[in-house]
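Worked example

This section walks through a single chain of length 239. The input is the sequence exactly as stored; nothing has been trimmed or padded.
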Amino acid sequence: MQNSARRYEPGWVAMLKLIVEKLNSTQDRNLIAMLSLNLLLLAFFIMLTTLADFEEEKAEAVLASVNQTFDGQSSLPNPQARYEESLEKIGESAALIDEIGSLFQETIPVTEVEEDSAQNFLRLTLPVGRVFLERSEELLPVQDLLVARLLKGVSRFEKNGGASEIELLYGVGLNQTLKGRGNLVTRRLDSALALFEREGYPARQLSIGLQQGYADRFLIVIRLYSEDQGAVTFEEQLP
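Given that input, the structure is written out below as tokens.
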């Protein structure tokens, strides 16, 4: 019976006994300090666990009272499922961000890739000469393939319950005007926009505009969300 009781002993009890035994059997100050810290962390963990159980019991009691009063059925939400789903979406968006960034850098090595810490934002910065024909609004043939592969990954992400938005930005220098080439810039942005729409990306999730401080650069900004944001759209920034 004694062996059977020890088999079901809570893990924190065994840990506590082990720490106390080592404290009683050593004179090493460094080891004592480390074990004391472990003991404090264990006590903090036990306190958090106790509080969590108490809050759960209160929530269940309130829910039972509501069910009894209104003679209805209800249930507590499952925050763990929601948390795991969010982690899964974060993993999917991070993988897609890495996939798109690698695709552009392998195809156009001069591409600059910038990601945010949450891994749901990607900015691709390319020289204008690697996107459009010289002095023309016509896109280079390689862009058709790149955009098609980019949107294939985005479509896969959205089919799994995610959402996205894409900005197409033409870079200009600080305090630079479009005098003498405004029409070309506008036509180039229109051409890029039309390419994304031809590949099936929804127009309401697209925007075009200018980006100061990025002279002669073309930027593609991709934002990924774990859930559909509804009819959230960008406003066009061109005059």
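What to look for: The beta strands are 112-115, 121-127, 163-172, 206-212, 217-225.
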